[in-house]
Amino acid sequence: MNLVYSDSQGNVFDHPDFLALGRNAEMITEILDDELIPLPEGSTLVSLPFTRPVGIDATTGEMKLVEGDYHAVGALLPQGFTRLLLPGYVKSDKTKALPLFGYTAVVWKEDGFYVAARLTDNPYFWNPIHCDPDELEVEVKRLTAKYPENRLYAHLSNCALGYECLTASNTFLQRWEGAVPVSYSCNAGCFGCISEQPDESGFVAPQTRMNFKPKVEEITEIMLEHLRTPESIISFGQGCEGEPSTQAVIIIDAIKRVREQTKMGYININTNAGLTDHIRGIVDAGLDLMRVSTISALDDHYNAYYKPRAYTLKNVEKSLRYATDKGVITSINYLVFPGVTDREEEIEAMIEFVRRTGLKLIQLRNLNIDPESYLSIIPKAQGELLGMKQMIEIFEQELPDVVIGSYSHTPKFYTSDRALTTVL
Predict the structure, then answer these.
(1) Which of 251, 240, 235, 239 is nearest to 179 (CA)?
(2) Which of 99, 247, 308, 384 makes a 20 to 30 Å CA pair with 237?
């Protein structure tokens, strides 16, 4: 398997004499054949700025840098695929941070590009190829014209057309999981926030956070437009907003108004679940699904990344337990990172957390972050690194009633045969 790298113009090459390497946190490691799958449809190859590619000289067996002005290459995977290794590289400028993406090790074999990843959910619904840009533009124009005073539709039009957000696009295409952002504020200061970063962070947020408080009427218009089929999902809590439960009053009002008019589809919230009293009110109003973002079930790691304001991981657990007990289908949006999530102590803590909260689904999401910056703020490993592949296998063995996936599903999914396997 050949090393893949790029020049300063973005041209991608495979090295005829260097074997590819990957990274598990700070450790550069070989890539095994059973860790590789063909580059998935919908993936993007990207050059990693401020890096040098590292490989193994096939002749001498030595680890070497590629000479010249070249950069490491990584793959950005679509939803449904979980990375097992980072690309093999060293920083050429350690003061610079990589853009906030989830870089995956990529190699060249005799018949094409391969990545160190595993299929963990059905990729069809989140493959960008199934979002026709011409159809999307037509639907954006139709709905923004139908609701000219609705600021949420105007905001989401930029998310769909400008940022190419698939959840926002679904809102206009009126299918699958659609977005209804509600909050401009947050009760956490996430180190890797994709919508708001302090000037001193060194990161550039790839999205702009919404800057207004929507009216209940604006929210209900979007919800009623989207909830037209039995399998439709409308979701509070998007990458372009803060924590949705900070706007619990308007969410509760909107849910009640919508459910007075239709029982169709499912209402979901993507949340950090730190505001337990707010979450209880939202659940009681008629919530169907809840996905809670977390990076760890260990307090020191969780706090280092999320920087929670006036809540703790124990509040998150209470929120999940309450929702589960009330019949809400609960899951976690588990931000995973090779060399961290697969630590022995992280795996043990997460298994116990899942058991205590009664989750039905672990959504594995590749953490979008500069690796060096992330590793500098979190606790050092205490136990053995088991590897991402083995971590997933342990979850499957220890949590047989919990589905391993990548995104939210409707209740029908959990009662079908598809829920018995992780590869759909």
Answers:
(1) 235
(2) 99
Nearest to 204 by CA among 126, 97, 277: 97
**Could you tell me if 349 and 297 are in contact, meaning their C-beta atoms sit under 8 angstroms apart?**
yes
| 269 membership: H or E segment, kind and range | strand 266-271
Identify the H or E element spanning 219. helix 216-226
What tokens does 368 get? Answer: 């979008």
Distance between CA atoms of residues 43 and 54, nearest Å: 22
Phi, psi of 159 (to 5 degrees): -60, -40
Q: CA gyration radius for the chain?
A: 22
pLDDT tens for 77-88 read 999 999 999 999
Find out whether 423 and 139 touch, Cβ atoms under 8 Å: no
How far is 197 from 190, CA to CA, in rounded Å?
A: 9
Q: Give all domains of the chain, ordered by start, each with its CATH number.
A: 2-119 (no CATH), 128-414 (3.20.20.70)
